[in-house]
Every structure is written in C-alpha cells, then in structure tokens.
Amino acid sequence: MQKKSMGPVVRRTVFDAFVFAYLVMAVLSPIIFSTEEALHQLSRNASIFFGLSIVGAFISGLVSRAGVRTLGEILFAPAHKRLPQGEPKPWYATLWGQQALVTTLVTLIVGLIVTEASIVALLDKERITSASRLLGELFNPGWHILPTVIVHMVQTVYMAFVATLIAVPIAFVLSFMAAKNIMGTTGPGMAFYTALRVVLNVSRSIEPIVWAIIFALWVGFGPFAGMLALMIQSVSSLAKQYSEYVEGVDEGPIEGIRSTGATTLQTVWFAIVPQVTLPYISYTIYRWDTNVRMATIIGFVGGGGIGKLLIEYQLQGAWREVGCILLVIAAVVWIMDAFSAYVREAIK
Amino acid sequence: MSASVKDSVKDSMTDTILSVRHLEKTYPNGMRALKGVSFDVKKGEFLVIIGLSGSGKSTLLRCLNRLHEPTGGQILFKGQDVTNIEGDEILKLRSRIGMIFQHFNLIPRHTVIGNVLSGSLSRTSTVRSLLGLWSREDREKAQSYLNLVGIGEKAYYRASQLSGGQQQRVAIARALTQAPDVLLADEPVASLDPATCHTVMDYLRKVNQELGLTIICNLHFLSLVRQYATRVIALKAGEIVYEGDPNSIDDAWFQRIYGEGAKEVHIN
After folding, report:
1. Is the CB of B130 less than 8 angstroms away from the CB of A260?
2. Model confidence over B30-60: pLDDT tens digits?
3. Pairing mode, strands B231-236 and B239-244
4. Interface predicted TM-score (ipTM) over 0.85
5. Is the CB of residue A88 less than 8 Å away from at least one CB of chain B?
6. Which of B65, B107, B126 minimises the CB distance to A259?
7. What's this model's pTM, rounded to 2 decimal places?
8. Number of other CB atoms surrounding residue B51 within 10 Å
9. Domains in chain A, please, with CATH?
C-alpha cells in the first residue's frame, strides 16, 4: 500500500542505495567479515549496511542530477520518462547496464561461496559409488510394502480433497469481499477490503508446512493436522484467485441487473456468479491437484499420510521401501495432474 | 426554484411523467458531463436524445434511474423528487424504469427466459430469487413478453447463442417484465447492423404505441430519429442545444449539433 504513494524518485533512491550498499559489502566482505565472530554481529553489520546505503543514496542523487540514468531510475521512472533522451546507447555502455551486470556477477560469486558449492564434492569418486548404490536400491523398489503405501496414499488424497472442499465455500464468500469492484473505493467497504487482503496475503505467505507444524501442536500429529494446514492455505489462495476473477468480470451484466432494481445480493448472484463459475471450478480442481502434492510433503512434519510413511522409512535408511513410496507418489501426482488438466480443458 | 417545483408537481398530475431540472453531473476527475440540463417528458412520448459521443447522453440516462449519482439539480418522477432518495427507494425507482443498453448487458450463460425473468427481481424476495423460484405469474409474463418481441420459441436457448438483434429484443422483454412506466434505451442499435437496427427500433415503437410505454432513447443516426421520434433533444458538451420536432432539424441545426463539416449518413 505504502509503496504506491512513494514517488518514483524515492523508490529510485532507495533501490540504488541498497544495491550500492550490497555491492560494497560483498566486495569488502573479506575485510568486514574477517572473523566468524564479526559475521554474527548483527547490529554492527546492519549499521555498516545502512551507513553505506546513505552514501549510496547520495551518489544516486548526484548521478541522476548529472543526467545519467541509474538502474533504479530505469526501473521506477514513470513510463513517459523511460525512453532514452537523444541517441540510444547499447545497454552495456550505460551506467544502469553495468550496474545490473556487476550486481548479477557479484551475486553469483557470493552465492557460490555461501551455498558451499564444491565441484570436488560433486565429482568425488567414493561419494559417487555410494550414491549410485543407494540409487540402485531406490530404483529397485521394495514392492512388499505396496499395500501399506496405497492405504497411506489414499489417506493423503482424501486429506487434500477434504481440505479443498471445506475451503471452497469459505473462499467463495470471502472472494466477493476481497474484490475491489464489489467493495467500492471509499469508506468502510474499502477499509474491510484492505484488511481482508492483508490477512489473506499474510496467511498465504505462510507455507502449509509451517501451518502443519502449528496444527500438529494443536490437534496432535496426524492427517487431521495436515488437512487443517492445507485448508488454511487453500482458503487464502482460492479467495485471492477467485477475487481476481470477480474483479475481471464484464461490467455490462452488472449494470443490466442493477437497472432492474435488484438488491446487491441479487446483482452478485445474477450478474457476477454466472461469469465466474467456470474459472472457479477450473482453479479449484487445480488447487486440489496442488494440495495432493503438498500433502505428501506435509506428512514430514507430522501431517500424517504418505509423507509420514516416507520419513519413517527414510530415517531407517530403508531405501528400497523409500523407492516404492516415491514411485507411488510420482504416479499419483502424474495421474492427478493429467486428470485436472483434462477436466479443466473440458469445461473451458 | 420553488415555483418551478410546484409547477412540475402540477404538471405531473396531468401528463408529465418525468421532469428534469438543472441537472448537473461532475465526475470525480473533474469532468463536467452535464451542465444544468432541463426538460420534461410527457407520458407516452418517444423522446430521442441525440449528440456526439461524449456529449453526456449516456450519463443523462443513467442519472434518471440513479445508476449514476447526479451532483446537482433535480429529477421528478411522477411528481416525486427522486434526486436524493436512498437505499430501497432507489431500487423501487429503478424497478419503475426499464433500461436497455448498447451491449445488451444480458447474462450470456443464462437461458433467454432466465434473463427475461431477472426483470422481476425487484418484486421477488432475495431467497426465492437466489433459488430461482419465480412466481407462476412472472413466468407467464416473461414468456408473453418474449412472444411480443417475436422470439418466444427461443426461450430455452442460451442468451449467447442469439444474434445481436435477438439479444436486444431479449433485453426489451426483460425491461418489460419490470412493468415499468418509462423505458430508457442507451444507444440500443449502435452495435447492430443496419437491417437488424430497424427491427429493434420497430419493436421499441411497438411497445411505445401498443403498451403506451414512455421511451427515452439515445441515438446516433438522424435518419432513425426522424423515423421514430415524436420529439427530439440534442445535447452538446453537456447542454441542451435543440429541443423540438425531429423533422425540423435542418442542415444548419445538424451542423450546430454535430460540428462544422459533419455530413449526415443515411441508413436504410
């Protein structure tokens, strides 16, 4: 919300300042983070970062005043100012081009160091042989546990299905309240719209795996916790997507129904609902498909179902059984994917 | 001001159905769409409003049934001041004033009869309407209006399966189902081909003459105006520049309404 009210100049300055501080810190990191201890001094490092940002902001201002366009300017300048003045230069000869290039290169180098990338570990002969032995076990699945696996897989599919089904009516109602064209742009409607959007965005940004941990503590480990986690995530995700369909409807039928003297509820039901039903169904099936995939993961943290079985066998190092589970997951995900694509194509 | 209100109240008791006094509409962006428009509409008239795109015709019609909020002036409908009514009163007003649109504004995925029945929404309770429980009387009425506009046999088609002209006739039937006192028509033939154009206009004339329904219609083509209007008003930049008999609009008036160098196009 606040970003919208910030002028392009402010956004440009902030962007350039942070990029500058980031670059300087990355390049000087051997000096700044000379010891392990220095790396963990958060307040000291934050001060350095913000100190450098202020310097960067000044530089951004000076450079812009000199008429040279920075990366921040290119990104945030209003559209009518974005065209280059005079003869265009190739991107690599411009300041913003070099800025983007240097930032990307520095990030790649720092990233390789931080992720401890090691070509040696990848090509180590001993590791390759032990990995290929384990892979061999994985691809020689222990079919004797197949009945158990299928029982757990069925549980997982139901978990995803129930979570989606419960989420649909809740998201359906919320979607109209989260649509700008229904709630208006003024007064309490707008306030409610904004509040709801914030809640939806926050709950959507929390991964279902985190919700599963929370619910496992609340209702105990098992498929119920997993179902609740998927449900919460589905409500916010469906409501967000549904509300975008509501915002994209043709205004004509709305005006047509309003002109007959219909109430707001009648207008929504007669003019909007028929327009969004098909996209709703299509997205809901996609969501169920997604939920099946997520449900397999959620078992890892106490959400029950196939994921629970998988982590149990993995911890035992029973790779042939793990292989069987992975194959069943892959098959079900593939079937769900094909099924949802087929149905969505059919109702288009 | 108060004298004119009294006059119009008296008029409405005789045969003025709608009185517009100094109507103003300024949009939030500062655009003045209507700059003090005044006129009366008599019961049973076929009044046509002409003018260029952007002259304020559509805004004017939408102010009459309060789809848009006027920012000044006064609207009297059957003697009642409806300029500042709120809530249910507005819904009641809209139910007394039918409206058809350039793009028909039907529900494309609903059946034709379903679309026509939505004209009875205002007298059907919310619960019954959401469940689709229309009264038998409304169903019969909807079917009879579909017959009146000559597409009774298409009742169970999807609206989107019909041609443009047929969809506009469905829209007329929907408006008639409201049992309105006035029918507003916003460019009803602007997205139709010339042949279909006359069919739709003929049906409008039919409901005007046979049902005695008052019609206020926005139009582009002067040739249609001469053929169908009983009276004409010309709007230019939010002001009335001509009011009177459609057949007395000569070349000079035409140029004044549509601008220098404009040429009249005939459609047959």
Report:
1. no
2. 889 999 999 999 999 999 999 888 888 999 9
3. antiparallel
4. yes
5. no
6. B65
7. 0.74
8. 25
9. 2-117 (no CATH), 138-346 (1.10.3720.10)
